[in-house]
Amino acid sequence: MATDLPDYSNDPAFAIHVGGKLEVRSTIPVRDKDDLSLAYTPGVARVCTAIADHPELAHEYTWTSKVVAVVTDGTAVLGLGDIGPAASMPVMEGKSLLFKEFAGVDSVPIALATTDVDEIVDTVIRMAPSFGGINLEDISAPRCFEIEDRLRAALDIPVFHDDQHGTAIVSLAALKNASRLIGKPLSQMRGVIAGAGASGVAVCRILLNAGVGDIAVSDSKGLIYQGRDGLNSVKSALAEDTNKAGLTGSTEEALRGADFFIGLSGSTVAESAIATMAQDAIVFALSNPTPEVEPDVAAKYARVVATGRSDHPNQINNVLAFPGIFKGAFDVRAHSITEGMKVAAAEALAAVVTDGELAADYIIPSPFDPRVAPAVVAAVSAQARAEGVNRI
Hints:
Layout: H1 12-15, H2 33-39, H3 43-53, H4 58-61, E1 67-72, H5 85-103, E2 106-111, H6 117-127, E3 133-136, H7 143-154, E4 159-161, H8 162-182, E5 190-194, H9 198-209, E6 214-219, E7 222-223, H10 233-241, H11 251-254, E8 260-263, H12 271-274, E9 281-285, H13 295-298, E10 302-307, H14 322-331, H15 339-352, H16 372-387
Parallel strand pairs: 1-2, 1-3, 3-4, 5-6, 5-8, 8-9, 9-10
Antiparallel strand pairs: 6-7
């Protein structure tokens, strides 16, 4: 090892990462030549021949139908940005760890040494026969939208960009419960979302589909509205479906009288702007590790406050969604994850919090709540069957 590297031996985060967080284990013993002859040659040849003759048998006699590829190009890792594929691996290993710990789903982290959309799509398509699902992770916008759309069109297995849809599902569940707490239906709410990247767009879309009255979305240049210069195709489409009032100012200006704020931007919002929100306001300051507004500041004016951090109540954490969603899809061998399945997951997640438990500091369950994964799995499987995207 090079002697000029920093010494991290006293940092517990580094200590648990020594050698990585994952390993591959066999599911059968190989104790003698008879075991070996069945697990490998010559016995394995009979299984290969059968699969060659009847490809569907691969789902029963290999692991492919129950393993997720966690794929990144390292361009949008956590709040660190474009740090490259090698530096992204601790996060991808962590994602695989969460799949296993929270839903018993096996996965393989894959960091690609390319940021070219065509190359990423082609690479994933070529390796897809080895997997039952593709979880896209930490790929920057707007490239992530095209990559997911093209893979969904090309493959007959679930493709899911968690930065978009995991955040959207958990945010919808949390907003549903906040709405239940304050006694104001989603249809009567006007909200503001700061951030028009992968998660911001997906959250906006799922909330509109759930019936939220109106949402104004902002990016680094201010509010998005029809006719604004410099909008890409994703933002132009968003402009057509949002901001019914035609607001043209800043995020903070749009907050005046708003019922909810969802921050997914990494920016900051002034306390004075939060103070202008409607009575019983809802604030989800989700940038991590530094929220758009500090939770104790937001709590002066908002009835409900959530963050992306584990050291505050109401953590909007994707781990509440993605393990159960893939497990539910795998259980029925769904060929895709539909919008209906996402909404079903959000509704199941919201319903975990009972009326007796619902409170301003408890609108969303903990990832360690044993009710979470089974509820999401059951809802996703049932919805897949209802929509006919299941194969068993």
